[in-house]
Write a structure and sequence with these properties.
Elements lengths: L21 H28 L6 H7 L18 H14 L1 H21 L2 H12 L5 E4 L15 E4 L3 E12 L6 E7 L5 E7 L5 E2 L14 E12 L11 H35 L1 E2 L2 E2 L4 H29 L5 H25 L11 H11 L6 H13 L6
Parallel strand pairs: 1-4
Antiparallel strand pairs: 2-3, 3-7, 4-5, 6-7, 8-9
Helix pairs in contact: 1-3, 3-4, 3-6, 4-5, 4-6, 6-7, 6-8, 6-9, 7-8, 8-9, 8-10
The protein binds 3-thiaglutaryl-CoA and flavin-adenine dinucleotide.
C-alpha cells in the first residue's frame, strides 16, 4: 500500500488561534507535524490490518502526549488543560484509535495514580508511563455492566497482606499490550475500589477482541481475573465508590470533546479539497448549492464546537468545569463529528468509501467514540439530571 501525503490545513474560521498562547500553538504544531510524518503515511494500512503500530508509543511520549497535565516531578509535561485538549485534537485528527491510546494512558491510568495513588505508587509508575516504557489500560466495563458500572460484579476479598481479585472486564482499550491495568472492583462492603494489577500476575489474562469494524488501529481486549493476588500496596488507599472511576472519566471525556473536533476538521478539510477538484457537469462539485450547503454547515458546526470547547478548557484550567458541562461537550462534539463524517462521505461520492481518503475510517471510528466513555444517550441523561435535579437512569 502506497504511503500517503497528508495535506491537512487547519480550518480556523473565527481566528481562534488568537485565543491560544504561543506555547499552545507550538504544542499544536509539534504534534501535528509528528502525526503528518509518522501517523498519516501508515494509518490506513494499520487499520486495514487491524494493528496498533507499536512504534507510535515512543513518538507519543516524545511529543508529550502521555500525561500532558501531570506535574513534571512525576515525568509529566506540566501543561495546562487547553494544551491537553489540543494534543487530543491533533491525535484524533490522525486517528481516533491513536487518540484513544493517549487518552487511556493519560486520563485513565496516569490521572488515577496521580490523584488517588500513594507516593510510592506515583514514583514507581508515573515516570515510566510518561516515557512510554510502561503502558496501561483501564478496566471499568464488564460484560453485563456497561452504562451501569455501579452494578459491577468483579470483586476483591481481603486476605491480610493482599487481596484476591476475581471477575472480568470487557472492551478494554490497550489491554492486549498493557503492562499494568487500573482495575475497579467491589470489596467485601460493596465499595468500588481501584487498584493496579501488573501483567504477569498469575491468573490475570488479556485476550484480544477481534472483528471490530471501528477503531481498528487501537488494540481492544478483555481483562480476566481468576484468583489474582493483588498486594495491598497496589490499592488506591482512600478513594471509594463510583466517584473514583467517574473522576477519571471527567478527564478522558474532556479530551474526547477536543479529539472529536480533530476528526471533524480532517473530514471537512478533505471534503473541501475534493469538492474543489472533482468535476461533474462541467464544473467543480464545490460550485453546486447542495455541496456548499453541506460544507457551510460543516464549518459552522466545527466553529461552534471549537469556541465551546475552548471555553470548557478555560473553565477546566480554573477547576470550574462541571461533569455536566463535560458531558454536554463530549456528546455534542462526537455527534457533530459523526454527522460531518457522513456528509463528507457523500461529497466524496464512491471515493468516500475507499482508504484513499480518511472519511470512512473516521466515520467508523466515531461509532465507537459515540459509545465509549458514556453513550450519546447517557450523556443526554446526565445533562437532563443536571438541569432538572432528577436522575432518569432507572
Ligand atoms: P451516581 O449515583 O449518580 O453517582 C455515584 C457517585 O459518583 C459521583 N459522580 C461523579 N463523581 C465524579 N465525576 C462524575 N462525573 C460523577 N458522576 C457521579 C456521585 O456524586 C456519587 O458520589 P457519592 O459520593 O454520592 O457516592 O451513579 P449512578 O450509578 O447512578 O451512575 C450514573 C451514570 C449513569 C451517569 C454513570 O454510571 C455513567 O457515567 N455511566 C457511563 C459509564 C461509562 O462512561 N463508562 C466508561 C468506561 S471507560 C471507557 O469507555 C474508556 S474508552 C477509552 C478510550 O479508548 O479512549
Ligand atoms: P449498554 O450499556 O448495554 O447500552 C446499550 C444501549 O442502551 C445504548 O444505546 C445505551 O445508551 C442504552 N442505555 C443503557 N442504559 C440506558 C438508560 N438508563 N436509559 C436509556 N438508554 C440506556 N470500557 C472500559 O472500561 N475501558 C476501556 O478502555 C474501554 N474501551 C472501549 C473501547 C471500545 C472500542 C468500545 C466499543 C468500548 C470501550 N469501553 C471501555 C466500553 C464502553 O465504555 C461501553 O461500551 C459503554 O459504556 C456502553 O456500554 P455497553 O456497550 O455495555 O452498552
Amino acid at each position: 500500500m502506497a504511503a500517503k501525503t497528508d495535506s491537512f490545513q487547519h480550518p480556523d474560521y473565527y481566528l481562534l488561534d488568537e485565543l491560544l498562547t504561543d506555547e499552545q500553538k507550538l504544542i499544536r504544531d509539534t504534534v501535528r507535524a509528528w502525526v503528518k510524518k509518522e501517523v498519516s503515511p501508515i494509518v490506513e494500512e494499520a487499520c486495514q490490518k487491524a494493528e496498533f503500530p507499536k512504534q507510535w508509543i515512543k513518538g507519543l511520549a516524545e511529543v508529550g502526549a502521555f500525561g500532558p497535565y501531570i506535574p513534571v516531578e512525576y515525568g509529566g509535561a506540566g501543561l495546562d488543560q487547553i494544551s491537553y485538549g489540543i494534543i487530543m485534537q491533533e491525535l484524533e485528527r490522525g486517528d481516533s484509535g491513536l487518540r484513544s491510546t493517549a487518552s487511556v494512558q493519560s486520563s485513565l491510568v496516569m490521572f488515577p495514580i496521580y490523584r488517588f495513588g500513594t507516593e510510592e505508587q506515583k514514583n514507581k509508575y508515573l515516570p515510566k508511563l510518561a516515557s512510554g516504557d510502561l503502558m496501561g489500560c483501564f478496566g471499568l466495563t464488564e460484560p453485563d455492566h456497561g452504562s451501569n458500572p455501579s452494578g459491577m460484579i468483579s470483586n476483591i476479598k481481603d486476605k491480610g497482606d493482599h487481596y484476591i481479585l476475581n471477575g472480568a472486564k470487557m472492551w478494554i482499550s490497550n489491554a492486549p499490550f498493557a503492562d499494568i491495568a487500573i482495575v475497579w472492583a467491589k470489596d467485601e462492603n460493596s465499595d468500588i475500589r481501584g487498584m493496579i494489577v501488573e501483567r504477569g500476575t498469575p491468573g490475570f489474562t488479556t485476550p484480544e477482541t477481534h472483528g471490530k469494524w471501528s477503531l481498528r488501529a487501537s488494540a481492544t481486549g478483555e481483562l480476566v481475573f481468576d484468583n489474582v493476588r493483588v498486594p495491598k500496596e497496589n490499592i488506591f488507599p482512600t478513594v471509594k465508590g463510583l466517584k473514583g472511576p467517574l473522576s477519571c472519566l471527567n478527564s478522558a471525556r474532556y479530551g474526547i470533546a477536543w479529539g472529536a473536533i480533530g476528526a471533524a476538521m480532517d473530514c471537512y478539510n478533505s471534503a473541501l479539497q475534493y469538492s474543489k477538484e472533482r468535476m461533474q457537469f462541467g464544473k467543480p462539485i464545490a460550485g453546486f448549492q447542495l455541496t456548499q450547503k453541506k460544507l457551510a454547515e460543516m464549518i459552522t458546526e466545527i466553529t461552534k464546537a471549537q469556541i465551546f470547547t475552548w471555553r470548557l478548557g478555560v473553565l477546566k484550567n480554573k477547576h470550574k468545569a462541571t461533569p455536566g458541562q463535560i458531558s454536554m461537550a463530549k456528546r455534542n462534539n462526537v455527534n457533530m463529528a459523526l454527522q460531518i463524517a457522513r456528509e463528507a462521505r457523500q461529497i466524496h461520492g464512491g471515493m468516500g468509501i475507499t482508504g484513499e481518503y480518511p472519511i470512512m475510517r473516521h466515520m467508523m471510528n466515531l461509532e465507537s467514540v459515540i459509545t465509549y466513555e458514556g453513550t450519546h444517550d447517557i450523556h443526554l441523561l446526565i445533562t437532563g439530571m443536571d438541569i432538572t435535579g432528577i436522575a432518569a437512569f432507572e
